[in-house]
Design goal:
The chain is built from six helices and 17 strands. The protein is α+β, with helices and mostly antiparallel strands. The N and C termini lie far apart (49 Å). The structure holds uracil.
């Protein structure tokens, strides 16, 4: 346990004397409660804020999760449904998902507490490839594949060029498995793209995000990205070179 003014001074907030003034002025809180007593002792797990700003920056965290079906891509849900952060144990930092997968979509989703990194990956001007595998109703014609590849209009906007690969056709069931690679991240984009060419999506999985995949992972599994992967992703996003 350390005296609060000493901890503030060590964190570089201000000199010891100035830190005492900050406390007396009621600008310092410990675990959300305003503290105005100079003798207050704190330890390393306490959340200390000056004017509402935490004095220590959290360690940046970068996590890859294989999102299972029927899980919300958020940190909380007002209807009490499972959320992606329920799966990430032993991480104290306040991580959140980078973009969204639909409730019923499975697959690769990143989580971080690094806002700059999240913005970089989600910004429309940075083009990161995302690879989806969809089970759709019906068998796709070459004309439909051509349209999907060259862009379809959804919500008044034309999608940019996509890669389309039919992986399987089941004539009896009248369904197809199609791989679609896009680099935008609009709401329900894949489902809307298939719908635009007349096919309902029955099942959807995101298999790849840039060079990251779900190799050897099961739904609900997660791992931290390596420093190399974080660096490579940032560089790819900035250079749009994927
Ligand atoms: N496109 C969709 O339609 N749904 C997703 O979850 C992701 C992309």
């Amino acid at each position: 346990m350390e005296r609060l003014q000493k901890v503030l001074a060590h964190a570089g907030v201000a000199s010891r004397r100035k830190s005492e003034e900050l406390i007396l002025e009621g600008r310092v809180s410990v675990n959300g409660d305003k503290v105005t007593e100079l003798g207050t002792k704190v330890n390393t797990s306490d959340l200390i804020e000056v004017d509402g700003v935490p004095i220590y920056k959290e360690e940046p965290r970068y996590i890859l999760l294989y999102k299972p079906k029927n899980v919300i891509s958020a940190v909380a849900d007002d209807k009490g449904r499972e959320v992606v952060t329920d799966y990430i144990h032993l991480i104290d930092e306040r991580i959140y998902p980078v973009g969204r997968l639909d409730y019923d979509t499975t697959g690769l989703i990143l989580l971080t507490n690094d806002g700059e990194f999240a913005n970089l990956l989600m910004h429309p001007k940075y083009q990161i490839d995302k690879v989806y595998v969809a089970k759709v109703e019906g068998i796709m014609t070459s004309d439909e594949i051509f349209k999907l590849t060259n862009g379809v209009v959804i919500d008044g906007k034309r999608t940019s060029r996509a890669k389309v690969k039919v992986l399987q056709e089941n004539i009896k069931q009248n369904t197809s498995i199609v791989e679609l690679t896009i680099h935008e991240g609009w709401n329900h984009q894949v489902k809307k793209m298939f719908k635009a060419v007349g096919h309902e999506v029955i099942k959807l999985k995101r298999e790849r995000f840039s060079f990251l995949n779900l190799h050897k992972m099961n739904p609900g599994d997660w791992r931290e990205l390596t420093a190399f992967e974080v660096d490579k992703l940032s560089k790819l996003a900035k250079g749009s070179a994927n």
